[in-house]
Automatic annotation (TrEMBL):
InterPro entries documented for this protein: ABM_dom, Dimeric_a/b-barrel
Positions of the ABM domain: 2-90
Origin: domain of life: Bacteria
Protein name: Polysaccharide biosynthesis rotein
PROSITE patterns linked to this entry: ABM (PS51725)
N-terminal signal peptide: none
Length: 98
C-alpha cells in the first residue's frame, strides 16, 4: 500500500471553515482507481495545521489521480483561505505493517 501525507497550516483564522469543508467534501477521490481511503487529521495543540493521509493500492494509482484530478478535488476550498508560506508539504510512505 502507498500512502501520501500532505500537510499545510492555515494563516488567517479559517480553521473552522476548512474543517467544515473536509466534513462536507464532495468525495471526488473516493471513486479514483486504486484509492483506499482518506483521513483528515488536526492536531489538538495546533488547530490551524491540517494533515491529509490518502491511502492507495499503489503509487501509480496516486500519480494518475494527482495528474488528472487534483484541481477538481480542491474546488471546495473556502474562499479567502490563506496558508502560512512554505507550510505545504507532502511525503510518501510505503505501508510495512498494519
Amino acid at each position: 500500500m502507498f500512502i501520501a501525507v500532505s500537510t499545510f497550516t492555515i494563516a488567517n483564522d479559517m480553521a473552522p471553515e476548512v474543517r467544515e469543508a473536509f466534513i462536507n467534501r464532495p468525495h471526488f477521490v473516493d471513486s479514483a482507481q486504486g484509492f483506499v481511503k482518506l483521513q483528515v487529521l488536526i492536531p489538538q495543540d495546533n488547530p490551524d495545521q491540517i494533515y491529509l493521509m490518502t491511502y492507495w493500492e499503489d503509487e501509480d494509482s496516486y500519480k494518475t489521480w494527482y495528474k488528472n484530478h487534483m484541481k477538481e478535488s480542491h474546488a471546495g476550498i473556502p474562499k479567502g483561505l490563506k496558508l502560512v508560506p512554505n507550510s505545504t508539504k507532502i511525503r510518501f510512505f510505503d505501508l510495512v505493517s498494519d
